[in-house]
Amino acid sequence: MEYASKDIRNILVAGHAGCGKTTLTESLLYLSGATERMGRVEDGTTASDFDPEEARRKASLNSSVIPVESNGTKFNLIDVPGLFDFETGAAEGITAAESVLICVSGRSGVTVGAEKAYKLALKNNKARMVFVTKSDLENSDYFKILEQLKIKFGPSICPCVVPARLDDGTVAYINLFSQKAFKYESGKQVQIDLPDIGHRFEGLIQAMYEAIAETDETLMEKFFEGEPFTTEEIVTGMAAGVRTGQITPVFCGSAVNQQALDMLLYNMHKLLPSPEHNSVLAEDANGDPVELNCAESAPTAAYVFKTVADPFVGKLSYLRVVSGKVTAGEPLVNARTGVSEKLGRLYTMRGKKATEVKELGCGDIGAIGKMDKVKTGDTLCDSRKVVALKGIPFPE
């Protein structure tokens, strides 16, 4: 199925090693109905850790693309390694994403890996969202983590879903947008009465209102007059703040036990930017800047952000379509060499699973097979408009 650019979200899933990025990606894949059972990092059965070495080490060593399709939206999740020896993965992945989902473990809190992910998003001007995973564990302390996030990342941090432990020891999740609470019974959402979290609740709502009021003058006036916002105003204001980088929304849940992931998916769709309005700067042959807009009618330009030598398929060049669309077998010019090359087979990837497609729409991510002369960092484009995007600044 082909998606319009407004229905695509390209999201880098980053954070410290072991914070639960791969499990979260796997869990969202399962939630969307794409897999029949949920793989486990411990067993080496997840879609994104498919390299035998990754299965052996129980950790991601390479970036992988996992598309999650849900309710008419395609989330291209780019799961990148948290281990610092494999930082290249995150540097490659960020060039293909509009936003960064920073994964924080409810157990170990805001670690160096989360800080690195946040700085990577800031440096590359990407929208940010935080997900506190393992929130259902006994020793998980959401409010302590919230404080850490505020200290480390400043006033943009804005809680949207908070956990509350019920009398029977299970965890409920309070959605601050709708001010409703839910618990999860074997992955199914059940609405419950709002648990009492004391004076904290008012403080959280107030903080959220303040953050949203900052994004729009009409909302600011409403805020000062003490009028409550509608859920729609909250979502619109929040989305505007996320796009400008004013707001970093914080969600929480459990990837292993499928808790509150529906709220995360829904808000990734509502709050994170699509490639549609995302223009990218490239250079023409004279070195002059050219703005590329994500429009299917525009001349094709695609950026190669990763190259893999696959033992079965051969060489795969992962690419992100920046403007126009890419069709299998069409000739495109490599801006680096000036040579026109006929494209090989075109695939969408889910971890190592390649699905052949005829074309890739604007803003989407896929891979081309057997392009021997194409390297990571190359721009492939229509001969009528040859432009080059900046290469990836790899860590030394």
Structure description:
- This protein is of the alpha+beta class and 396 residues long.
- 24% of the residues lie in helices and 31% in strands.
- The protein is built from nine helices and 24 strands.
- The chain has helices at residues 21-31, 52-57, 88-94, 112-123, 142-153, 200-213, 217-224, 231-244, 261-271, and strands at 8-15, 64-70, 73-79, 99-105, 127-133, 157-159, 161-165, 171-175, 180-185, 188-192, 248-252, 280-283, 289-292, 301-310, 314-323, 326-327, 331-334, 340-342, 346-350, 353-357, 359-360, 365-369, 379-381, 388-389.
- The strands form five sheets. It has an eight-stranded antiparallel sheet with strand order 18-17-23-14-15-22-19-20, with no helix packed on it. It has a seven-stranded mixed sheet with strand order 2-3-1-4-5-11-6, with helices on both faces. A four-stranded antiparallel sheet has the order 7-8-9-10, with no helix packed on it.
- The longest helix has 14 residues, at 200-213.
- The chain is globular, with a radius of gyration of 21 Å.
